[in-house]
From TrEMBL:
Pfam families: Transposase_mut. InterPro entries: Transposase_mutator. Transmembrane segments: none annotated. It comes from Dubosiella newyorkensis. GO terms for molecular function: DNA binding; transposase activity. Keywords: DNA recombination, DNA-binding, Transposable element, Transposition. GO terms for biological process: DNA transposition. Required for the transposition of the insertion element. This is Mutator family transposase.
């Protein structure tokens, strides 16, 4: 995961030619953050299903059984999701439906959000006194 520091952002804003680099950096930052968040949510979902924390002893016959990977296409790029499994095969995540490989916003032709990512909104409009208006078209 990336750490956005003041020095990184200042370096990217030194001149206007760095705006494509900033756009690429922000997209990669959001993509990696989304990937980590989805993986954390699904790990927590398995913990709630099994009703005990990882590495804790339990009298439950069902236990963790690793995970399998799935690639999901999102508007920030492809993410790799680790879907946890249980020993008895009873766990199914409700967060990510089976066979889902694409974010609905991208596959929906009517969604204007999927066609254009406005980083001005994501960054809050102003950063270091410069107004940012970057549009990323998919």
């Amino acid at each position: 995961m990336f750490d956005i520091t003041t020095d990184i952002v200042k370096t990217l804003f030194v001149n206007e030619n760095n705006l494509p680099a900033l756009e690429q950096f922000m997209l990669e930052y959001f993509r990696s953050s989304l990937e980590n968040t989805v993986n954390d949510i699904m790990a927590y979902e398995l913990t709630a299903f099994l009703d005990y924390e990882k590495y804790a002893r339990s009298d439950n016959a069902n236990c963790r059984n690793g995970s399998y990977s799935r690639k999901i296409d999102t508007k920030f790029g492809s993410i790799t999701v680790k879907i946890p499994r249980d020993r008895l095969g009873e766990f199914y995540t409700s967060f990510l439906p089976k066979y889902k490989r694409r974010d609905e916003l991208i596959s929906s032709p009517n969604s204007r959000h999927a066609k254009q990512l406005n980083l001005e909104v994501l960054l809050g409009g102003f950063l270091y006194g410069k107004k940012i208006k970057i549009h990323y078209r998919f």
